[in-house]
Structures are given as structure tokens and as C-alpha cells.
Amino acid sequence: MFAFVLTMAVTASIGGLFGTPITAFLIAFPVTVFCCAAISDDETKARIGKILALSASAGAMFTLSSLLHTDWVNHLVFVLLIGTVAYARQFGGPWIPVGLAANVSYFFGAFLKPDTQMLHWQWIGVAIGAVCALIVHQLVVPHRPWRRMRWAVSSIRMRMGAMLAQAARCAEKDKPPRLKRELARVATAVTIAENELDNLEGGRLAHRPLAEALLSMLALAERFALQFHDHPERIAGSNASQRELEDLSRALMHYTPLPEEGALAPIASGIDQLEEALALPPDLDAAKSWKVPPSAPKRVQIRYGIQSAAAAALAIVGGVMLSPGRWYWAVITVFVMFTGTFSRGQALAKSLQRVFGTLAGILVAMGVVWLLRGNTHLTLALMPLAIFCVFYAFIQSYTWMAFWITVTVALLFSATGRFSDALMLLRLEETAIGAAAGIIVAAFVLPKSTESHAREQLNDLLDATNAVLRTAMLEGPLDRLKLTAAMHDFTAKLANMRDAIEPLRIFPGSQATGQRDKITRQLVLTSYWVHEIALAVRQLDSAGEEQLPSSAMEGAKRLEAVIGRLRTPGHNETAEDTDDAPQPLPRETDNPTQAITTACEGVAATVTSVARLITDRSIYSRAFRF
User: Fold this and answer.
1) What is the pTM of this model?
2) DSSP tag of 26
3) Residue 119, SS3?
4) Do residues 34 and 97 make contact, with C-beta atoms less than 8 angstroms apart?
5) FRET partner for 175 with CA separation of 20 to 30 A, picked from 311, 364, 388, 509?
6) Contacts of 409 (CB under 8 A, 6+ apart)
């Protein structure tokens, strides 16, 4: 928002100085917005390099689009560009912001059709946008990783306190605790902090104690929530009285001294260890001593480029037939819809979210424009706020992002005097055309079902779980740095697995929703048990144990055998769930060896259950096959 306002002020000043309209610099605005939204590097050199690459890409594509005056040629190049960017996006890194800027800038050139004699001013606009974004990055809202990490740790403390308060309220009402949402909020805060480790000096390997404390805190939160879910009667028992819950909750949220005794002492101790680890300086020598293994080869597939290009072409045809002047709304829907989409189910879910978000945005925008009653200055003042909401919603909810994009578009048309109800209705129709084009292509052009994608992610999760196990169960001293890296990869693969089954949510009250809920439950348990393994192994290492006891090693070997069986290509798990799955460990657990043995049994049970829910066709829903 600050960069947008600064860019507006600079372009208006330069335009007034040289007698040039502000429209001659319009490319500056998408450049500055995307430089701020898509580039988050904390290292100044890396940030400048990505800003330069993004700006050059934006300027080149805007110029190319401006020079292609024949509509069919312009559309053809646009389709090829969308396919190329979708393919390159799989490589990650700078390709994502550069591709995004290329697509949007080409669209701007096709839509605005600027005078080719004024292109040099647009390139000046590119420079203005890049410089304004850099100024905001460096001076106005500088990236300070330690500050963000402190905020994240504070958020963990507050959300843990909220979870305990919710448990206390359930005890007061004599109702089973519903801590699913509270546990998810704690896990989100831990994930944010864990990802922030890469931005600290020396990276995550220079902050191993902090990384371990974060994962330990998540394990304690999961243990607490799962115990209360399975045994709600313990709330009123001697192990965790309502008063203890309330006292610790208040201490966490009001930053008063934490209790050192009682059934909840492990949680208080975990918070203390987390805050102590936050105060430690980075161990740069330790980070340099460990050679980072080469990244796994990326599974780049041309199908993503082909699907995106085919959907864009179909959207252009349908969009032009409806409105030769607004076809780009259909294409933008396709472009955003295929970002991070890997299956037909995800395409269907995103299309519905886009349409519903656009519809809600239109209804609200009509009311806002009516209230503004043509006040241009107030409309322009609201636009930066709406743009901020777009990019904030980008990481929160796809539906809300579509909502705020529509509100922003309505404010733009209102400021230029072109807003009308018919125009908003046309936007909804074009969005529906783009969504339909995306669904058709995802279903018939090199399709991948939700089932196939979920199987791929399950295999990746099994591999990551096995990597944690092998790192933790070495016959010798524990390599804590390697275990930290393995746990980070496990967390990423677990998130991908959750995303793969998320499309089942669009069928409320059906068998699909039940299947998703069951898989989600088992994934929560898998996360918990793997965290327990890592926590127990570190406890043994801290106690000076250089080799794990034989009982723990035997449990690990049994788990490896289960993973090997489930990982067999084409394996369909049909074994029924057993009733002897281990229960979450007591909060006062002080036997790491027994914890490892029990956790290995728990992981074996949960991954087997996940595999059965994903591979046994006799029990999963029809929607899962889409």
C-alpha cells in the first residue's frame, strides 16, 4: 500500500513536471505492487536482483504486447506466454515473480494499447515502480527477520494460552473440548516461525536450538489437544484441573511467570525453552560445518504448461464471443486458477471459489459505489486499502482474494466514471467463462484426478517420514542438524498432503467430506507421532546416549517395514483399522525409549490408515476420483 501511494505521488510529480499524463506511466503500478508482494528476500543483494529481473520482464512483455496490433497474433502470443510461464513456475525461485509480472504486464499492454511513441515513458514508469518498491522494502517497511521471529514466538505463546483457555471453558461447561481450531492456530504460528528460520543470519542450521524448541512446542500442543480429544474426562481429573488450565492460560497471555510444577509444567517449560532459544546468538560455525545436500530434482511436467495454455485459449474464445472488450477477465481467471493447481479436484474447487468470491465482491462493490456517490477523491483513497486486502487475502483465502480484486476493479471503474451494474454483471459472466474453461481443460486435457495426486503426495510423505526415521535412528551420535533439516522437509510434505485432499471440502455433508475429515485426523496423528520421535531422540542425545536402546531400534525397523510395504508402486491398502492403535502419550512422559517405541507404532498405524483411505476404492468417495 505504501509503495502504491509513493508510486502514484512520484508519477504524478514527474508527469506534471514534463507535461505528461499519468497514464503514460501506468506500468509502474503493477511493477511496484508485484515487487512488494512477490519478493520477500531479506538479503538486499538478492532482493535487488529479483526486482531488476521482475522489472525487466514486465517492461519487455508490456512493450511486446504494445507492438502487436493484430488481435489474433496478440492473443496467440498471450496463450504461448501463459503456457511458458506455467511451465517455468515449476522451477520456483525467481521464476515465480518474473512469470507473474510477465503475464500481467502483457495483459496491460493488450488492454491499454498505449501509443508506441510514448513507450519510453512506460519504461521510465518501470524504473519508478522498481525504485519505489525498493525504497519501501529498505526504508519504510524494512524486512527485519529477528523482529518477525519474535512476533511469531509471541503468537505461539498467545495461541497456546487461547487453547488452554478453551479447554478450561469446556471443563466448566462439562463438555468435550473442541480444540481442533485452536491446535491449527498454534500449528500455523509454529509453521510461520519455522519458515522464518531461513531468513535469520546463517539460516535454520545456525539456529538449531530454536528450530528444536519450535518443533517441541508443537509436539506438546498436539499431545495436549489429542489427549483431551480422546479422554475429555481428564479435564476435571487430578492431572489437569480447570484451575491449572486457567492459571497457565493467564500466565501465557499476560506474560507473568509460568508455573514450574503441575501436570501442565511441560508446556510451561517448553515455552521457557523456546524463549531462551530465541535469545541465543546464531551458531555460524555449526551451520558451515554441515554440508547441505543437493536439492531433490524437481518433477517438472509439461502438462501444466499445456493445460494453462489450452484453458487460456478456450477462455479467450469464449470471452471474446461474450465481449470483445472484456475478454481478459476470463483469461485472468484461468491464469490465477491454474496457479498451484495439480488435479481436477483442485481446479474445480478454485473455479467455484473464484465465482463465489467475484459474486460477493460485485454485490458489496455496488453498495460501496452507491455510498460514495461519485466522490472521486474518496474512491482513490480507498483503492490502496483494497489493494492491500487483495494481497493479504492472497495468502489467506482464494475466495477472499477474488472478492477484494472485484472490489478494487469496481473502485477503479468508479474513479474513471465507467462503473455500471451491467459492467459488473459482465465481469461475473466473464469470470464464469474462465472458470468453465479451466474445469473443461483440467478434466479432458492431460487430466490428473484427486486420487492420483493424493497418491503422489502420500508417497512423498512416506519418503519424508522414512528420512526422519533414518536420521533419528543412526547407530551412533545423533546429527541434530540433519534431523532438523529432515523434520523441515517432513512438515512441507505433510502440508502438500493436506492440500491434495482439500478439494473434498466443496462437497459438504457428503461421503467426500467424511473421507477428508478421516484423512485429516490421521495426518494430525502422524504429525504428532513423528514429532514425538524427534523429541524423544533429542532427549536421549541430551542425556549423553550415543546409541539408541535395542527396543527403540526394533520399533523403528518395524515402522520402516510398514513404510516400505505402503511405498510399493501400485500398492492398495485394504487392511482394516485395528482398535489397538496407541493413545497419545501422557503429558508427564519421562521415558524417551518407551516414547520412541510407542510413537513408531503410532506412525505405523496412522500412515496405514491414510494409505487405506486413499488407495482402497471400496471405501473412498466418487468425488475423490474426479
Assistant:
1) 0.85
2) T
3) helix
4) yes
5) 509
6) 365, 427
For position 238, what pLDDT does the model report?
41
Residue 193, classed as helix, strand or coil, is: helix
Distance CA 608, CA 33 (A): 46
Task: Using alpha carbons, list the distances in angstroms from residue 188 to 20, 191, 385, 468, 495.
Answer: 48, 5, 25, 21, 11
Residue 453, number of CB atoms within 10 A of its CB:
21
- Cα–Cα distance between 510 and 504 in angstroms, integer? 9
Looking at residue 262, what DSSP letter applies?
A: S
For the chain, what is the radius of gyration of the CA atoms?
Answer: 27
The pLDDT value given to residue 474: 67
- Alpha carbons 98 and 474: distance in angstroms, whole number: 43
pLDDT digits (tens, 9 = 90+) for 421-438: 899 999 999 999 999 999
202 DSSP 8-state letter = T
How many CA atoms does the CB half-sphere of 134 hold within 13 Å? 18
DSSP state letters, 612-625: HHHH-TTTS-SGGG
Integer Cα distance of 233 and 60 in angstroms: 66
Q: What is the pLDDT of residue 234?
A: 53
> How far is the C-alpha of 620 from the C-alpha of 363, rounded, in Å?
38
User: What is the C-alpha to C-alpha distance for residues 542 and 546, in angstroms, rounded to an integer?
Assistant: 10
Dihedral of alpha carbons 432, 433, 434, 437, sign:
positive
Give exposure, 597-613, as e/b (b: 16+ Cβ within 10 Å). bbbbbbbbbbbbbbbbb
DSSP conformation letters of 509-548: TSHHHHHHHHHHHHHHHHHHHHHHHHHHHHHHHHTT-SS-
First to last CA, the chain: 40
Query: Which of these, 215, 236, 235, lies nearest to 225 by C-alpha position?
Result: 235
What is the chain's percent helix, strand, coil content, to nearest 5?
Answer: 75, 0, 25
Dist CA 343 CA 624 (whole Å): 11
Looking at residue 80, its pLDDT comes to 93
pLDDT at 233: 56
**pLDDT score recorded for residue 509:** 62
Rounded CA-CA distance 247/235 in Å is: 14
Residue numbers of the chain with a pLDDT score lower than 50: 236-240
The three three-digit cell numbers of residue 532, written as one number:
514425538
